[in-house]
Amino acid sequence: MTTVLLASLLSSLWTVADALDAPPSSYLLAWFGIVLAMVDLRHHRLPDALTLPLAAALLLLESHRLGAAALAAVIFGGAHLAVRRLKPALMGGGDVKLAFGLGAPLGLPLLLPAAMLSSAVTLVLAGIRRSRRVPHGPGLLAATWALTTL
Description:
- By secondary structure, the chain is mainly alpha-helical.
- It has helices spanning 2-19, 24-43, 48-61, 66-86, 93-106, 111-129, 137-149.
- The chain has 7 helices and no strands.
- The protein is globular and about 40 Å long.
- The two termini are 29 Å apart.
- Keywords: Membrane, Methyltransferase, Transferase, Transmembrane, Transmembrane helix.
- This is Leader peptidase (Prepilin peptidase)/N-methyltransferase.
C-alpha cells in the first residue's frame, strides 16, 4: 500500500513539474523528497546516504550559477546550524545537512520564503499529528519543491 501511495505521489509531482516546465532539480527534489520525508516521519532521521547525494546532485545541477548556489547553500544551511547550536532540541543534524543542500536550487531570493513556508508546513504537521515533536525535514523538502517548481 505504501509503495502505491508513494508512486502516485511521485507521479503527481512529476506531472506538475512537467506541466510547468520546471527545472531538473524539481524532479530530483520530488523523488528524494518523498523518500526522505517518509523516512523522517517514520524514524525521525534523515540518513546521510540520501541527504549528501541529494546535496551534491542539486549543487551539480546549479553549476551554471555555482557561486550564487554555493552562497545560498551556505547561508541556508548556516542558519539551520545556528538554530541547532542554540536550541538542539528544535532541530536535528539531518535537518541541517539537508538545508545545506536545499539552499542551492533556492538561491538567495527564495531563502526567507523557504524558511517561512517550511516552518508553516512543520506547524501544520504538528497540528495534524497532535504532537509537539514532529520532524522538520518534510517541511523543508515540501517548501523547496514548491518554490523551485511553481
